Amino acid sequence: MKKKYKSLKVKLFQRIEAIVAISLSMAIIISFFTIQPILSGQTLDQCEQATRQMTELLENTFDPIVNYADTITYSRDLKYSIDKYLAYPSSQYNSQLQLNLSEFSNNLSYVRGLMLELPNQERVFSISNIYDEDLQIIKSNWYKETEGTYLLKKFSDFYTTVQTNATADTREAISCVYCLNFEMKARSYRLVVFFDVSNLIRSFDNIAAAYLDDYTLISSDGHPQPLLGNNILLSNDLDFRDPTSYEELTDGRYFHRQSNYAKWAVLTYISNKSINRAYRLLLIFIVLIYVFMSGLTLLLSRFSFAQYVVPITKLSQTMIRISKGDWKAQAKIQTGDEIEDLANVFNEMLNNLNYYFNISLEQEKQQQYMRYNLLISQLDPHFIYNVMSIINVLAKRAGNKDIVDINTALIHLLQDRLRISNTEIFDTVQQEIHALEQYIFLANYKFGKNAVKVNWHIDETVLNDKIPKIILSTLVENSFKHAFVETTRKNILDIRIQKENKAITIIVHDNGIGMDAATLATLNASTPVQTSPRGMHIGISSMKQILQYLYKDNISICFSSEPDKGTTVRILFL
């Protein structure tokens, strides 16, 4: 009888509905007790940060003015122009002094002009933008109060200037004056800097619009600046000289912060109404509900869905094991729902795949082994052919001892070659070297007294490592057959077998006749060398096919050669 069960979809939906209902209820209850203080604290932190930022802007504007004025008073060019003008009062030296002041006024972007008051009360202005409002400041009581005090540094209150540009357009700007009294050669001077603070005020307005209801600046004399903010602070009866008096006010929150250098202060204000603004409270309330509900839903779902997620995870892990080659893995799942059905179908499908895979693998092994034996069988007749050619040469020399020696070596070689079976596709480096020594012994009879000198460079750590059979012999045979065509010259063969980063490297180098570029390109081609009708290149072609079959992409074969300079073959087993 078929087992009855609820579908996975129904189970998940039922759990999700219950969790969402619980999460939403808890979020609404908790929000009533947590959002109000969070909202107030966040708003006040933003206001305090805005006040701090405005104070930094004030310092970044006023402090450079102070340093700028000090730099001017130490200028040698200015002192020289002043001395010349005082010694020889004339329009020429007056113009020179004005020109120096104008050059200084261009060093700071928001400085409009300079004025220097000499000991004889004469005032010299820079050739720049000096307006009527600036001259009114010079005539004000504030300016008179700066007289007579050595090294007095003071900023004026902000004031409005009506400025006219080159196109006769006018605009209103907010300006300020900095006055510095200094002495030079026991005589008193006064430097006045006229500078524009419109950009500073615009920055203040932008910050205040985002976080504050009102703000103002309080000068070092305790004067609020009426040109700033919304004048809410100025409409209240506040003691701007006593910052502690703001703490007793209950209509809102006040933030007072004083600059370090100029001793000016920033005073900001936000009302209780703004702190508790309803639309912001509602917005944050809704956002917090959804965030909290989502987080709680995920947390509870993690435990509730475990009994459904774990079987899926097991099935996934089984698939991963199979993808890595473990074809015997089975998904053992008993959940009484669609996941169990899926696991059973998957196991049955895997069993069928294993059956057909094993059949195909066995057929492929047989085909590949037949192909390998076929390639090996192409090498041996070619090898025996070369050896028999040497025997024919020796037979003509009528030397019985030579014939006995060469046939003995031939027997050893044939014994080694006849050891090929399913488990002897590879052989140790030491065994291959032993077989190669027999071949070199045979092949050197062709050269008589000018036998090929073989230099062995064998790393002892590779002697017991295995390499494909006949590969080394094929490389050496190729050198004897194609490189050493002259038996009267001194022929040298270098054979090197070593390890490089745990990979075996075989290098065979001869000093023979070399080869041209076309032949070299053919040997280095990725496709196997084509076998000629008479069997030319059959050794190299078969060797490359064997290595590509055995190692796929984990083999590197490189030929390098130049005519009359020899040939080098490098094989790297990766």
TrEMBL record:
It is a multi-pass membrane protein. Pfam families: HAMP, HATPase_c, His_kinase. Residues 306-358 form the HAMP domain. The keyword Lipid metabolism does not apply. It is found in: Cell membrane. Keywords: ATP-binding, Cell membrane, Kinase, Membrane, Nucleotide-binding, Phosphoprotein, Transferase, Transmembrane, Transmembrane helix, Two-component regulatory system. The chain crosses the membrane at residues 12-35, 278-300. GO terms for molecular function: kinase activity. It comes from the Bacteria. This is Histidine kinase.
